[in-house]
Amino acid sequence: MPERVLVTGGAGFIGSHVVDLLVDAGSDVRALDSLHPAAHSSRPEYVNPAAELLIGDLNDPEALGAALEGVGAVCHQASMVGLGLDFTEVGDYSTANDLGTARLLSALAERDFRGPLVLASSMVVYGEGGYECPAHGAVRPEPRSREDLEAGRFEPPCPRCGAPLEPRPVPEDAPLEPRSVYAATKLHQEHLCSLFAREREGVRFTALRYHNVYGPRMPRDTPYAGVASIFRSALEDGRAPAVFEDGRQLRDFVHVGDVARANLLALDPGREAAGAFNVASGNPQTIGTMAELLSDAAGPSAPRPETTGEYRLGDVRHVFADPRLARERLSFEAQIDLETGMREFATAALR
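and the corresponding structure tokens:
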């Protein structure tokens, strides 16, 4: 591992687990985190004491300069997450994700940075997942309409003949079509980092496209929390998890411990790790199944999930990964299956 690694967002859900593994690997670790109030109510106690934690924002030149001193590798986890439920938030997302990344890359260029650069990207850059029509083969369905969703028609039809489609895993070379504000900013982050690496000899850029990450230290029930955290918060309050649509949406749920390990593999200078990689379990499950497993793990008196038929217009129907490239080039395979992970998650500390 590089001697000193900067983890942006290092006090966050995924970033703090990356920090732990880097410390265990013997790296000199510095974490930079703004402790944004949407994600943190106070300085978290779980941040590894062997790492140096700096409180500051990527858009603050003084904080960024201090964070980059002596750094030989960067693991860029800092991000404002969630769908972007209201378009009035577009400026906040762009400032935190796009401008923050631009400031980071500019500062790295000024310092003639030549090390590994790993970005926390997301499966949301794909938009809808992969689909196949029995008559027309691989197709890209149109975004689902409000009218169809209101009528309970959740499955996207073939754009050519209207026939039902079969969902398929998404490889890294699939077309990129972000369908939310957050998704657009994640794709822009990838573009900026890729351009930086192309212009700076010696920089190896890796984009890790996380699928649905869950595990300890997730933020609680907020508009920016993942679905697993929202369900867990409901159970903790004695409420039934509310499963949107018909609960049959397919996702790939991957444990945060596996995601942190993928970051360590990507930071290893001895690996051919340039490019984009799906970080996923390779075992897609429905959102309804995940909710059932979590309720089972919470105990016999826990409320059972309720399928509501509600929807969010920016949501996609099915998206799950083809994990082969990460296995072949990063030597990454997820180790924690969903049932085991949900048993841990049912009682894990949330933020």
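(Above: one complete record from the training split.) Residues 90-110 form the longest helix (21 residues).
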